[in-house]
Amino acid sequence: MNKNALTSSFIAAVSVVIMMAGTSNNLRAEDIKVDPLGAKCLATSTPRCYLTIQEAINSSVNPKDTVLVERGTYIFSAATLTLKDGITLRGHETAETFLSGGGGLVPIISVTGAIGATIEHFTFINAPFGIQESGNNSTLTIRNNVFNVGRSGTAIAVSTSPTTQVINNVFYLNGIAISRDDNIFIYNNIFRSNVTAISNPTVTDQRIWNNFFDINTVPTGTLFIIGTDPGFVSAGSDFHLVASSPCITTGDKDINGLNNTGNLSYADMGTYGGQNTDTIPVKVTGVTATMPSTSSISLNWNVNKSYVITGYHVYYGTSQFASSGTYSGTGATEGASPINIPSGTAATLSNLPTTASVPDAPVLAQPTYSNQTLGLSWSAATNATGYKVFYGTTSPPTTSIDAGNVTTYTLTGLTNGQTYYIAVKAYSQLTYYMAITAHDAVSPFTPGILHESAYSTEVPQGVGNVMESVLSNVVSEYPEELTAFPGLTNTRKGCFIATAAYGSRSASEVLALRAFRDRYLLTTAAGRSFVQWYYQNGPAAATILNAHAGYKPVVRAALLPVVGMAVFMTQTPLFIKLFVLLFIISMIAVGRFYLKQYRGGSH
Amino acid sequence: MNRLLVFLMLVLLPSAALAADPLQDQPHWSLELKSGKFAPAVERWAEFYEKRTIPEYAGTFAYKLVRQVELGVGVGTMKARGSAFAPLHNATTGSTVLQMYPIQAFMLVRGLVSEDQWIVPYVGGGFTRMYYQERAQDQEKVTGAVNGYHVRGGLQLCLDNLDRGAANNMYLDYGVHHTYFFAEMERTRAVVKSSSTDLGGTAYLFGLLFEY
Question: Chain B contact for A46, CB < 8 A?
């Protein structure tokens, strides 16, 4: 490892330590985590980890414990969550941590008599009640959440708990945003598109201030903003504020305090304001990659309209994040991964290394066969990033299909009985994998933590020339219709006599008759009657025919006009049908004319 | 000869403790739940299917005309997975799935002499309609049905005598007079005329019989 690399590693390590020390999401050793999808989520881990939120809460023995809930959707349709005194229940990222009622009939969280508990950084959805607090002077702090429980639900219901604090939340599309029978603290919230913002507004409202309300839903309090648009980035999915929002810096600064150097939005209203907000930006979406030249990649993505976003990071590497756990790309003129993009929503990685090795030729196994289908498999070739299947009725085959990076492929839609020649080529192209993050002006940056969004969806892009192997061995095979054993007949839908006469249910003549039945006979009452009669009597005739195979050529000859008519009716275009009909009518007319002439002459 | 006498005594000897038994009133209905192995009579079966027998699950429901004679209906299900046949290649390949659903109407005669009889022999038989579904790989499903008949016979072991308390509870809670464990052999014949294929076979079944 050279000196620069060592220095970089040291700085990175120190950064992580600083970041971890400063993060509001950081857990103490005695705190608790909830991570149902985590690989090593054990009660013996440090911090302790549980699969459900209630398990984590129940395991708490210290009144100051924090239960950190990982991103995901947690459903409480039957059992409600109950809190403990002093506990802090925190979502990892407000926009990605959902507490759902699942359409059930119980509150998501029920609090009775809990003292000093805090609920923060969640999105509450689809429930009759988001949080129901009652009795015994509970003291609950509800901050920096989004409540979107539905137009028939109540986001927060508070009863006989006057010291409850509802701070810096967004209430969007709820029936009742806050229902209370006491003079609780409600400030720095945004109320938007709720049927009722705060119920029972006749209660003395000296504790309601610095909130944003829709017109007509304003209680008789002091210090509020009335408007129609609080300036969300995207109401319903991203409740960060755009630069023109009236809710920026209009929150209560005295309450939030002025010493908020790590939080640019501490004076804002809404979920992403206040000193305890979740500062992680929302994921970047719409990432696309193209290859304008053989050694460069162009990237584009959707803009993140949050006013605190000051740029993006482009991460790149030659291996997928899922396999390597990092984007460690180097070599682009723009720099090593990650590259900071201070403005705009596009980036270019240029002069990328493009050298790919020529892959070995794969070895193709003898195909399997079934009805119009050949199943292929081949050995994996060293350095290959994909395979092309070549097939055709002559050798060597020329028609090709890009099968992707797989070692099996199924050719379908082939002609039964036709011999096909098949071969495979491996190809190799250097592929880069990229992801984008958004960040604000406060460092340090770490994807998904503090001031940088989690990685966007990863996009792959190949660069450089495609290097192909030589053609594999050529194999030949023909598909054919398989016969089930013991080879029973279809007594419900079969063309029994034709099947017996032609020897297969898939004979073209039988298929034509079946198509004629479905398209013409079954569409009329008379046709259906005939089909019903045939189904009752056909099997017996087929039995006789099977027992006397010598009659089959005779029956085939007898069926010829019927089959011909079925083919004509089902496989010829309409104008040909009309032409033939006119021709027949003309011939009949001409015949009748000459017949008349003949009879007249004879008289 | 001695063994035969012992067997007959065991089968026919009524229990001495019937007087206070709530199971005295006689049942009129019976329900059988059974499963076991079915050995198809189809020729060349072993060439296409890995196992000579396939599992069968069945149930019957019957009304007792008299204590020893009952009329009933039954339904079963069997499923086999095997290989298909490629005529041009003259080879077994790919896959075939065959499912059969026998529907039965039957009469059963039971050698019942006493309500407390330990072992009850029985024979029966009747009409069978065998519904089938057959599907080869990458092809349409073939469905149909053929008529046939079946005969069966077996032995029923009365479980009531093993635990009288449980038997009484079964009666009081569910109205079940007697519970039997039984083993039977069944032969079915259902020939598809067009191909002379017999979809029947021999089944060896075990199960529980509830009389109520």
Answer: no
Is A373 in Cβ contact with B144 (below 8 Å)? no
Q: How far out from the chain centre does Cα B137 lie?
A: 31
Is residue B60 domain-resident? Answer: yes
Nearest chain B CA: its distance from A505 CA (Å):
10
Provide the number of structural domains found in chain B: 1
The answer to the question of residue B13 being in a domain is no
In this structure, is residue B12 part of a structural domain?
Answer: no
Q: What confidence tens digit (pLDDT) does each residue in A162-210 have?
A: 788 999 999 999 999 999 877 788 889 999 999 988 887 555 556 787 8
Q: Which residues of A touch B51 (CB under 8 A)?
A: none
Verify cis geometry, omega within 30 degrees of 0, for the bond prior to B87.
no
Of the residues A412, A485, A499, the best mutation for testing chain B's interface (the one with the most B CB atoms within 10 Å of its CB) is A485
Q: Locate tokens 């006009």: which residue?
A: A561
Cβ contact (<8 Å) for B143 and A484? no
The three-class DSSP label of residue B15 is coil
Q: How far apart are CA A25 and CA A28, in angstroms?
A: 10
**ipTM of the prediction:** 0.75
Q: Does this model's pTM top 0.95? A: no
Q: Is A371 within 8 Å of B137 when comparing Cβ atoms?
A: yes
Domain that holds residue B69: 27-211
- Measuring CA to CA, how many Å separate A117 from each of A64, A114, A177, B1? 9, 6, 20, 86
- Report whether B61 contacts B67 (CB < 8 A): no
Q: Do A490 and B144 touch (CB under 8 A)?
A: yes
Interface test with A, best of B44, B138, B196 (most A CBs within 10 A): B138
Taking an 8 Å cut-off on Cβ atoms, the answer to whether A486 and B197 are in contact is yes
Residues A115-128: tens digit of each pLDDT? 889 999 999 999 99
Each residue of A318-365: pLDDT tens digit? 989 998 899 999 989 999 999 999 989 999 999 998 888 899 999 999
Question: Are A567 and A561 within 8 A, CB to CB?
Answer: no
Two tokens at A213?
């309300």
Contact B145 A491 (CB under 8 A): yes
**CB atoms A485 and B197 under 8 Å:** no
Cα separation, A232 vs A212, whole angstroms: 12
In angstroms, the CA A1 to CA A8 distance is: 11
Is residue B135 exposed (0-12), middle (13-18) or buried (19+ Cβ within 10 Å)?
middle
Three-class secondary structure of residue A284 per DSSP: coil
Does the structure show a pLDDT above 50 at A17?
A: no
- The whole-angstrom separation of Cα A303 and Cα A319 is 26
CATH of the domain at B90: 2.40.160.20
Is residue B197 assigned to a domain? yes
Q: What number of C-beta contacts closer than 8 Å exist between A and B?
A: 112
**CA–CA distance, A72 with A91 (Å, rounded to integer):** 9
Question: Domains along chain A?
Answer: 28-207 (2.160.20.10), 288-355+432-462 (2.60.40.10), 368-431+467-477 (2.60.40.10), 496-571 (no CATH)
Contact residues on chain B for A480, CB-CB shorter than 8 A:
86-89
- B42 to chain A: which residues are within 8 Å by CB? 485-486
A16 against A98, higher pLDDT: A98
Per-residue pLDDT band at A9 (split at 50, 70, 90): very low
**How big is chain B, counted in residues?**
212
Q: Do B143 and A487 touch (CB under 8 A)?
A: no
* CB contact set of A583 (below 8 Å; sequence gap of 6+): none
